[in-house]
Amino acid sequence: MYQRKLGKQIAILLVLIVFWCSIQMMISTGMLNPYYELNLILMCINIILAVSLNLINGFNGQFSIGHAGFMAVGAYGAAIITLKAQLPFPVALLFGALLAGVFGILVGLPTLRLRGDYLAIATLGFGEIIRGLIVNIDYIGGAYGLSGIPKLANWTWVFWLTVLTVVVIANFVNSTHGRATISIRENEIAAEAMGINTTKYKVMAFTIGSLFAGLAGGLHAHYFYTIQPGTFNFLKSFDILVMVVLGGQGSITGSIIAAVGLTIISAALQKLAALRLVIYALLLIIVMIFRPQGLMGTKEFSFKMFTRKSKDKEGKQRGTAIGQ
């Protein structure tokens, strides 16, 4: 059993290495033009954002719509470290992520006593407060934003940090702490009755989600070398929320599929920017009508899904044949 699991993990790692090498070779030789490279980077950043928000909204059952605020904290925090303090890029990313995590604790402790719509309004308010503060601090560029940030993020950094995010969150979800987190989503009163410290696990999930949103912000700042407060407004939080809802609240692979799909749609609709939100809203309505649980629901993608379906189909065919 252990050997089979280890073999599966080695196979996945080999696939990831081959994929990374293929894209890196295409970038180095010029086969992949900057437009496609940009969209690949955006896909990875969106995956980090969607998976980290899914930990809060999907697995923990809290309704947060202030994720862009944590992304802004990470972006500005990391940019200050490289631009003002002249420290190495890994230190900047770590600082931005940890700073966003600290803000996650500060926001989570008082607001996670709220539920549903009230929590959504509180987190939305946090995102707008952060944006308002940034606009009024001249040291970080104020309303004009921060420019001249060293372009240190590249395909290698963004890809492997995306893999790290998915691995860490998947391991957390499958751990004892993750099971306690999911139990809060299923029934908070029952979880409390079973002795689970619901406040502790809510804050833990909120902090981890915020930390990785800060990491995504740091990568964003160092790839686009300029950041503005308007980039992190409530529409950005809405974009991330749409990815989570479309993919399925409680599915990491669903978030990845939705992040990739919506990044492609967004790139295709660049000339129709005004209609982008209309199309997003239509997509949400269609999904809510035909598949309210999202594309993957609470399931994860695996090849067993197909083998089970084929076995079920074979079973039905045999049953029909016997009946005849």
Set down the secondary structure blueprint.
Elements: H1 2-29, H2 34-59, H3 67-83, H4 89-111, H5 116-135, E1 146-147, H6 155-173, H7 176-186, H8 188-193, H9 198-224, E2 226-227, H10 234-247, H11 252-268, H12 273-290, H13 304-323
Antiparallel strand pairs: 1-2
Helix pairs in contact: 2-6, 2-9, 2-10, 2-11, 3-4, 3-5, 3-9, 4-9, 7-9, 10-11, 10-12
Provide a short characterization of the protein structure:
By secondary structure, the protein is mainly α.
Can you walk through the features of this model?
The model has no long low-confidence stretch (mean pLDDT 86). The protein has 13 helices and two strands; from the N terminus they run αααααβααααβαααα. The chain has a two-stranded antiparallel ribbon. The two termini are 41 Å apart. It is globular. The protein has a domain at 33-232. With 324 residues, it is mainly alpha-helical. Helix 4 (89-111) runs antiparallel to helix 9 (198-224). 76% of the residues lie in helices and 1% in strands.
Order of helices and strands: HHHHHEHHHHEHHHH
Strand order of the largest sheet: 1-2
The helix-and-strand class reads mainly alpha
**Count of individual helical segments:** 13
Determine the mean pLDDT.
86
Cα(first) to Cα(last) distance is 41 Å
Contiguous uncertain segments of 5+ residues: none
Total number of beta strands: 2
- Rg, alpha carbons: 21 Å
- Strand fraction equals under 5%
* Percent helix: over 70%
Looking at the structure, what is the overall shape?
globular
Report on the biggest sheet. 2 strands, antiparallel
Oligomer: single chain
InterPro entries: ABC_transp_permease, LivM-like
Membrane topology: Multi-pass membrane protein
Transmembrane segments: 12-32, 38-56, 63-83, 89-109, 118-137, 157-175, 203-225, 240-265, 272-290
Protein name: Branched-chain amino acid ABC transporter permease
